[in-house]
Amino acid sequence: MTEVNEPPRVGGWTRFVTARPRLALLAALVLTVLAALAGSGVADRMSSGGWEDPDAESTYATQAIEREFPDSQPNLLLLVDAGDASVDDPAVAAEAGRLVERLAGEEGITGVGSYWQTRSPALRAEDGHEALIAARITGDETAMGETLDRITPLFRGEQGVVEVGVGGPVTVQHEMQTIIQEDLLRAELIALPVTLVLLMMVFGSAVAALLPLGVGIVAILGANAILRGLTEVTEVSVFAMNLTTALGLGLAIDYALFIVRRFREELSAGAEPLTAVGTTLRTAGRTVLFSALTVAVSLAAMLLFPQYFLRSFAYAGIAVVLLAAAAALLLLPAALMVLGHRVDALDLRRLFRRRRPAKAAAEEGAAWGRTATLVMRRAPFFALGTTAVLVLLGLPFLGVKFGTADDRQLPSTAASRVVQDHIREGFPGSPGGSLDVLAEGRATEAQYAAYKERVAGLPEVVRVDGPLVKGDAAVFTVQPKGEAVDDPAQHLVGDLRAVDAPFDTHVTGAAAVLVDSKDAIAEQLPAAALFIVIVTLFLVFLLTGSVLIPVQAVLLNALSLTAMFGAVVWVFQDGHLSGLLGFTSPGSVETTLPIIMFCVAFGLSMDYGVFLLSRIKEEYDLTGNHEQAVRHGLQRTGGLITAAAVILAVVMVAIGTSRVTNTKMLGLGIALAVLMDAMIVRTLLVPSVMRLTGRATWWAPGPLRRFHERFGLSEGESAPKAVGVEADRADRAGGPEDSAEAEEATRDKAAHGKAARDKAEAGG
Fold first, then answer.
1. Rounded distance between C-alpha atoms, residue 541 and residue 610, angstroms
2. 8 vs 529, which has greater pLDDT?
3. pLDDT in tens, 493-532
4. pLDDT cut 90: percent of the chain above it
5. Which of 27, 453, 578, 734 has its CA 20 to 30 A from that of 259?
6. What's the pLDDT at 9?
């Protein structure tokens, strides 16, 4: 017989993570410092593009034209403003000539040309007071950024009798990258203190509140180091940095909340710290592992797309999710072992209320239990009503229009955006909207002329310039009517590709890149969706052993995203609230953003779904009472999920304060999805649907049931279903309000069984 004062013995995973907790924490501190050093400056090595399909026709044509005809692809524009004078004034022309000469003499600059040299009407404003100097900055993104930083102060501002602005695609990309880095730092400075305050409100203890932040910082710094390594072998989008911060803080807080809450529950029940850690890892630890896997699966689907913009979010997301889970399952238990009962130290709630924390938590749990009872009592009303509201909120997405990111992503005061606005509003045609046709193969002047005439005859073409000929290759520049990537411009891409020619032709330009990107996404989208669905179904089955619950989880999680997608169109495409939120709507949604938002938000929804289902499954295994299990699961996790969702929403809203529209859309959209999922779907839709499906919710055919018994995992340990006989009878007899006595009896029996198992496992 074990002595009362004999310390509990543990084995397996618990022994591994608690053997030398102080040494583990010291090693983690050293690794975190090394990761911080390795990941420093990672944003400077990232790219600001990545929306194009690398295997598309437009990408091939762009690369070939940049290689063979670099001077025909200017990426730097100097906007020369003559004030009240005409750009044809001799003094203005003389100053422009000096600017051209100075720019051509700068290292890293090629292909300098201007209105005063070519007299092209496309380079002269319609009012005659502004004109353009065009050039190309050579090199990769890092080299172009360095060149731009060097020459911008030399040319921007007052230059003799003219005022000069610096713009063009390379300037827009460079300024966007700079603003994203600045905004990310500001978001972190906003999110960290607000998150700490919220965590102290949730935990009460300042010590407990610091643990999730520590896990988040470890995950973020580690993910930055991984991204820094990836930049050595592949291109990574700077936009992915935002996801690293958001998920690093959000998921680390989710996982730490769940583990610390369970650890404190075990301590409150009288367990010693070592036993409490063991029970926490067997229960909440398993849930965290499943949650991390489901989120990682959703993010991994973006690896199936060819655009490195999408793949970058997968790299960042998977890295930070796995690191957050690893820190929560390795470092956090070590910290809990060191702290023990001191995890409740510095309870700040005592300063504001007289109620004991345990009593307050009990009252909070009872409120969630009453909510579950009410929802299940009126299950058809809540199921149908909630579904109808969510579908209604998602209807605006039926009118979505896809486009590309341009300078209007930047705030209206950004220097490069000001230049581009001047060009867009004052110059003929669409800036950056021309389509280039690369002709490959030997041809005569007559053949080129005949092809040019056929292209000029297309209804959406304003004019055709060229060809520029080099060897067996030539380039034609086609100016379409209207905006650069509107529907007519996209249709023109197909018309150009269909024009008969005696040589091979390849079309590129903004509209062509958009068309090819949409085709690539449409081609891979079914595979990505199937991947998410199949793997999610499998993981949730391993957790629950049910056939119906995984299907419910996928459908309800997808339904929870409707409000987000509806808001994306209503707010960001149609421009509602643009003044309040401080952005300019281009009238479209960037093609890849809905994919990113779906994968991230779906993964986070599964995160909360796993938390809830794990506690429902644990209770069902103990009692066999379906409705009691649903009520108990919501009672135990409702407050936790809501707190986690609010904290994650705060982080995403901080990201959403970015001055770059795509980042703003990502942050605010996912914040909305998280809140809708936690407060509407988990609170109303899941309990009502599970009440309607009843005990059939847990059905599985024999082979699958045996498979789950052998390979499945759950938060709780299985209990003999005979324990729940009384509850089963009550379930069949009436609603949850009729089963109070049976519930009490079954919980008493289950509690004895659970205590016996905990004691046996702690000693073995």
1. 11
2. 529
3. 999 999 999 999 999 988 899 999 999 999 999 999 999 9
4. 40
5. 27
6. 42
**In 321-341, which positions are buried (b, 16+ CB within 10 angstroms) versus exposed (e)?**
bbbbbbbbbbbbbbbbbebee
C-alpha–C-alpha distance, residues 320 and 603, integer Å: 13
pLDDT, residue 507, reads 94
Contact partners, residue 427, CB within 8 Å, separation at least 6: 122, 123, 124, 125, 126, 130, 132
Residue 22 structure tokens = 């102080």
Report the alpha-carbon distance of residue 624 to residue 619 in Å, rounded.
Answer: 8
Provide DSSP, 554-604.
HHHHHHHTHHHHHHIIIIIIT-TTHHHHT----SSEETTHHHHHHHHHHHH
Q: Which residues are within 8 A (CB) of 329 and not within 5 positions of it... i.e. 6 or more apart? A: 17, 255, 259, 281, 285, 288, 289
- What is the model's pTM? 0.83
- In tens, the pLDDT along 56-79 reads 999 999 889 988 888 777 889 999
Lookup: tokens for 282? 């067997």
- Give the CA-trace dihedral at 509, 75, 131, 430, to 10 degrees: 20
Beta-sheet pairing, 504-509 with 589-590: unpaired
| Cis bond upstream, residue 193 (ω within 30) | no
**At 203, is the secondary structure helix, strand, or coil?**
helix
User: Are the beta carbons of 272 and 215 closer than 8 angstroms?
Assistant: no
Task: Report whether 229 contacts 34 (CB < 8 A).
Answer: no
Kindly state the tokens that stand for 285.
Answer: 């630890």
Give dist(CA 385, CA 684) in Å, integer.
10
| DSSP 8-class letter at 4 | T
* N- to C-terminal Cα separation, the chain: 13
Q: CA-based Rg of the chain, rounded to a whole angstrom?
A: 31
Tokens at 515, concatenated: 């068309």
Q: Quick one: CA dihedral 557, 560, 566, 569, positive or negative?
A: negative
DSSP-derived letter for residue 329 is I
Which residue spans within 443-596 are E strands per DSSP?
A: 461-470, 473-480, 504-509, 589-590
674, two tokens: 């998280």
Question: What digits encode the pLDDT tens for the residues 172-231?
Answer: 988 988 898 899 889 888 888 888 888 888 777 788 888 888 888 888 899 889 988 888
Residues β-bridged to residue 157: 164
Residue 641 · residue 612 · CB < 8 Å: yes
- Strands (DSSP E) found in 386-457: 402-403, 435-440
